[in-house]
Amino acid sequence: MAQVRNKQVILSNYVTGFPKESDFNVVESTISLELPEGSNNVLIKNLYLSCDPYMRGAMTKPEGSERKGSPTYVPASPIAGYGVAKVIESGHSNYKKGDLVWGFTTWEEYSLVPAAQLVTKIENSDVPLSYYTGILGMPGMTAYAGFFELSSPKEGETVFVSAASGAVGQLVGQFAKLTGCYVVGSAGTKEKVDLLKNKFGYDEAFNYKEEPDLDAALKRYFPQGIDIYFENVGGKTLDAVLSNLKVHARIPVCGMISQYNLTEQEGVKNLSKLIYNRVRLQGFIVTDYYHLYPKYLEFLLPKIKEGKVVYVEDIAEGIENGPAALVGIFSGRNVGKQVVAVAHE
Amino acid sequence: MAQVRNKQVILSNYVTGFPKESDFNVVESTISLELPEGSNNVLIKNLYLSCDPYMRGAMTKPEGSERKGSPTYVPASPIAGYGVAKVIESGHSNYKKGDLVWGFTTWEEYSLVPAAQLVTKIENSDVPLSYYTGILGMPGMTAYAGFFELSSPKEGETVFVSAASGAVGQLVGQFAKLTGCYVVGSAGTKEKVDLLKNKFGYDEAFNYKEEPDLDAALKRYFPQGIDIYFENVGGKTLDAVLSNLKVHARIPVCGMISQYNLTEQEGVKNLSKLIYNRVRLQGFIVTDYYHLYPKYLEFLLPKIKEGKVVYVEDIAEGIENGPAALVGIFSGRNVGKQVVAVAHE
């Protein structure tokens, strides 16, 4: 069988603290582009790989039963994540050669994956294919499920979003505006704050790095308090939010990126504020909501085509640049959804 | 108009840290036992006063809009809380002379209260009247709403209750057993731990003061994790629970008594555990559930009469002993529901 080159991104060591480029290696392996006899797996060519905050958890050495439900990388093996791919050969009836798909794949040029790892075929190709790592993929469904399913937003409510220009945040803000909410976002650079106000339609936005007193900043933007806080960062931001909630506020907990690289987590002190305000703080995992994907496409595709919802991506070209792109999201280097383009078709 | 003596419990100063007996004074005032002309209020003789953890919040000097929804005491004025009383005269059609009632009253022998402060007339007097400060009053409804309405318990689930022998906790444990759950409680003395196991039917119980490692204690009692944590204490206990939850766990947040007397709240570090386990942490206030009170009585009264649900009270005799009784609940001096008997009929 003919073997072809298969570049891979390998975890060199378990990571502690902030991940560095040197925690990864790009190596050359080989792969056969024929399906093994009798296999019901799918052989795919990876086109776009998604850099997502949850991947930080997979880089940490697992301890006991601690990391239920989340993937774990193995040193000296390639890392994994969401991606867009083209089917080269398929042993499974759901997929055929030439199909475009998105789902869970490996960081390499070609992968042999179980069909169950693929979320779905891509039926609409009149939008950028890379969108299926973001607005039309896992982060998009995360924003949709977290905002509409967990928060039950109503017109006129007040919404705060942290990491607001990120893969998920930029959509939450736009969904909030479509619902008739007042929405404020926080981000870590002036460029991102400008995007929030001028591109995504946030009513207000601020650079949290320039706010010595987050509580005061929230009181400025939400004098009457917050109805919905879409939680992406945790730590000090959550603590400040807890002192600025309205009665019956909802906090869908999507992620806590500010905590992922700390060896000792920050303590959150204002949890007793949940009581009198009858607040619901709820963690969620997007995979529980994938049955809503067709409904999501029906809601969103027309809005993308009419320009009513926009999406900003930060695309790194070439799998060689994958480690830098992945590491960059933990220091906020990316502007918008971070993608790695392995190939364009 | 004839005036009678009316002993009152007065707040001497706003409280910081743990409340002390000297933060209160018992003084003699006078009151007329006739309703003012044209009043639609209700004149009541207070029989039993309830000592509840939420009262600590009312002793703190209010800051801005911080204490929405909770009462605030005023120095040099009598404090207030739940109680059982007998109607002396009524200007309101819902109540008449001789009725027994429970509701929100003032810490004094006689009170003139708006009818809206009273929750309801007492129709069943074949149980101890003091029960209407506890099992048949606000704490009982708190246990019922927090456990059944917010936690949606199922047979076979695992339940952990902190402050488990308290006014609310002793009922949550018994409700969990009636539902077919496995239930473990924590308390602060050997006497209370014995009560949990031998009187309230908890499957297991431990003294948290004798557990240097709460995480290890929970792993011992819940090797498969916790489905429902009934949160009464906050702080370190909550942090340990967060590392021992099952997927889709529910945490109704009833109170955080371990934090009420601290000038600096303890930080809770394990909140990111909410995410992968899809945990719902939800604050609630019992007054939102008072419409369920008739349903609660229907559920509970037969069980009390058949001895299937029991209740332990700690009754201090005389309003003069009110301050000591109230202060005592914050150091765990009481065993079971703390009540102050002002008069018995």
Describe the structure.
2 copies of one chain form a homodimer. By secondary structure, the first copy, chain A, is α/β, with parallel strands linked by helices. Chain A has 9 helices and 15 strands. In chain A, strand 9 (182-187), helix 4 (190-198) and strand 10 form a beta-alpha-beta unit. The A-B interface holds A 66-70, 234, 238, 243, 247, 253-256, 259-260, 264-285, 288 and B 66-70, 234, 238, 243, 247, 253-256, 259-260, 264-285, 288. Chains A, B: InterPro entries: ADH-like_C, ADH_N_2, ER, GroES-like_sf, MDR_fam, NAD(P)-bd_dom_sf.
Short description:
By secondary structure, the first copy, chain A, is an alpha/beta fold. Chain A is built from 9 helices and 15 strands. In chain A, strand 12 (245-253), helix 7 (273-276) and strand 13 (280-283) form a beta-alpha-beta unit.
Question: What number of structural domains do the residues of chain A give?
Answer: 2
Sheet of most strands of chain A: 7 strands, mixed
Indicate the multimeric state: homodimer
Say which CATH homologous superfamily of the largest domain in chain A is assigned. Medium-chain alcohol dehydrogenases, catalytic domain
Number of helices of chain A: 9
Helix-strand makeup class of chain A:
alpha/beta
Number of strands of chain A: 15
Using only C-alpha atoms, the radius of gyration of chain A works out to: 20 Å
| Cα separation of the termini of chain A | 23 Å
What share of residues of chain A is helical?
10-25%
Protein name (chains A, B): Enoyl reductase (ER) domain-containing protein
Organism (chains A, B): Lupinus angustifolius
InterPro entries (chains A, B): ADH-like_C, ADH_N_2, ER, GroES-like_sf, MDR_fam, NAD(P)-bd_dom_sf
GO molecular function (chains A, B): 2-alkenal reductase [NAD(P)H] activity
